[in-house]
Amino acid sequence: MVLADCPRVAEIRVRGWQTAYQGMMPQAYLDGLDPADDVGRLRARFEQAGEGVVSLVAEWDGDVVGWACHGPYRDGEVRTAEAELYAIYVDPGRIARGVGRALLRESVARCTAAGHGRMLLWVLQENASARRFYEKAGFAPDGAEEPFEVAGVEVPEVPYALVLGGS
């Protein structure tokens, strides 16, 4: 990913939330999301990414159609030796075409090469399609749920983990 990809990544991220989280989060919140509002935040995070944080994009016929970001696992504000998939989103028009699988494979490969023993991620408890996606890639639930608040509504998330490097 390069800084110039931020507007397209913001669009993919927002449209991804609006599509994937329908019925799981307040609809008024999802309807109010605007890629233009997300670009500045995304640029700042990209420019200020800490050591080991990697943003990847997937392209299809020259157009950015997916984005993933991974780095050290965050235990509160502390980064650990484990890896975390912070985000993965695919343009809703490109879902189920291998884009997400390719991004996830590349993130896993890079985290393995960096010497991380495990890769973790958080997924909405009710997001059955995302949970199937991660489970097909070898991730498994790893502990109890935690609340995630969206527009005053608690939306439970569950952690998933994958052992890296055949350990």
Secondary-structure topology with pairs:
Elements: H1 6-20, H2 27-32, H3 35-47, E1 54-60, E2 63-75, E3 78-90, H4 99-113, E4 118-124, H5 128-136, E5 140-141, E6 146-150, E7 153-163
Helix pairs in contact: 1-3
Identify low-pLDDT runs: none
Distance between the termini: 30 Å
H and E order = HHHEEEHEHEEE
Mean pLDDT over the full residue set: 91
Describe the global form. Answer: globular
- Derived from helix and strand composition plus strand pairing, the structural class reads alpha+beta
Radius of gyration: 15 Å
Helix content: 25-40%
- Most strands sheet: 7 strands, mixed
3D structure, described in words:
- The chain is α+β, with helices and mostly antiparallel strands.
- It has helices at residues 6-20, 27-32, 35-47, 99-113, 128-136, and strands spanning 54-60, 63-75, 78-90, 118-124, 140-141, 146-150, 153-163.
- Strands 1, 2, 3, 4, 5, 6 and 7 form a seven-stranded mixed β-sheet that branches.
- It is globular.
- The two termini are 30 Å apart.
- The mean pLDDT is 91.
In short:
The chain is 35% helix and 35% strand. The protein is an alpha+beta fold and 167 residues long.
